[in-house]
Specification:
The protein has five helices and 23 strands. It is of the alpha+beta class. Pfam families: Yop-YscD_cpl, Yop-YscD_ppl_3rd.
Length: 308
């Protein structure tokens, strides 16, 4: 499966699994991939899977390639190719490939020619006179004193400005995040995110006056998916109600009892009904795959490990 990865910006680390044929990208709540960075339009662009490949088309916003060149017409994306939307870097990648490092756009600064050094007449009387500061302290003490004064000035300035800068950044972050003031708005976003991850039918959303709780028994490998989704929603939105994750690992058990276990070259088990199963034998949709010194493993409709 392929996915669309966000490489920088407010949603850095987010990924949209590409299951289907068409996906909208923008800052609108109903977008399949919602980006709330500055400059992103409600319906910025659209990704479509065609017979020719992955096609990205501008709608209300602009698209640039990796070199920063603006693209006005729909164009085909190749796996691993990077493109930008108003400064947000995205890439189309196979979900099994590792994430790349975030690309850094380097703006070339104009080189200002150095002004010719002004020559000072060596006969200037002021140069021959030493200041009181230079006469009192030796050279090394002068350097140390100036360095300490500069360090003290920098420390005081940083201490004075830090609370204001932190408050300003926090206020800007709060203004950028879209609001989900009630359970209806939160449920809409949750259902969309769960549907993208093919988990909507595996969990239950329980609404109350205080918020929404996600319940369900899931396989071990799907729990982290729900946890990352919940964290992303809490980070990307201003929630007016609470969001709780109460999903847990699905407990499974054998549909029959084992009364005897034999390991070694002819490893087998005997069930309560007297049936003997060797490696590769099946019962009730479960296939005996391994018998070791401390556990038995079954595969098939479910993977079950029994300690003994």
């Amino acid at each position: 499966m392929f996915e669309l990865r966000v490489l920088n910006g407010l949603h850095e680390g987010a990924a949209l699994p590409l299951s289907g044929k068409q996906w909208s990208i923008g800052n609108a709540t109903e977008s399949e991939l919602q980006l709330c960075d500055n400059g992103i339009k409600p319906r910025h662009c659209q990704l479509t899977l065609t017979d020719a490949g992955w096609q990205i088309s501008p709608v209300e916003g602009s698209i640039c390639n990796r070199e920063g060149e603006r693209v006005a017409l729909p164009f085909l994306l190749q796996p691993g190719e990077i493109f930008t939307l108003s400064g947000v870097w995205l890439s189309l990648d196979d979900a099994a490939t590792p994430w790349r490092e975030t690309p850094v756009e380097i703006a070339s600064a104009p080189v200002t020619p150095t002004a010719p050094e002004t020559r000072v007449n060596a006969s200037t009387p002021a140069k021959s006179r030493k200041s009181l500061f230079a006469r009192i302290l030796p050279r090394w003490a002068q350097i140390t004193t100036v360095s300490l004064l500069l360090l003290l000035t920098f420390t005081i300035t940083s201490w004075v400005l830090q609370p204001g800068v932190a408050q300003q950044n926090d206020d800007e972050s709060q203004l950028i995040k879209p609001q989900l003031p009630d359970t209806a708005a939160l449920r809409s976003v949750l259902e969309q995110k769960l549907r993208e991850r093919e988990l909507l039918s595996r969990v239950q959303l329980t609404s109350s006056a205080h918020g929404i709780t996600i319940n369900g028994d899931l396989p071990q490998d799907q729990l982290p998916i729900v946890q990352r989704m919940v964290k992303m929603i809490r980070d990307d939105y201003q929630l007016g109600v609470t969001l709780n994750d109460e999903t847990k690992v699905k407990s499974v058990s054998l549909p029959f009892r084992i009364i005897q276990i034999t390991s070694g070259s002819h490893a087998n088990i005997v069930t309560e009904g007297g049936q003997r199963l060797f490696i590769g034998d099946e019962r009730d949709g479960l296939r005996l795959t391994s018998i070791t010194a401390d556990q038995i493993e079954f595969g098939g409709r479910e993977n079950i490990t029994v300690k003994w």
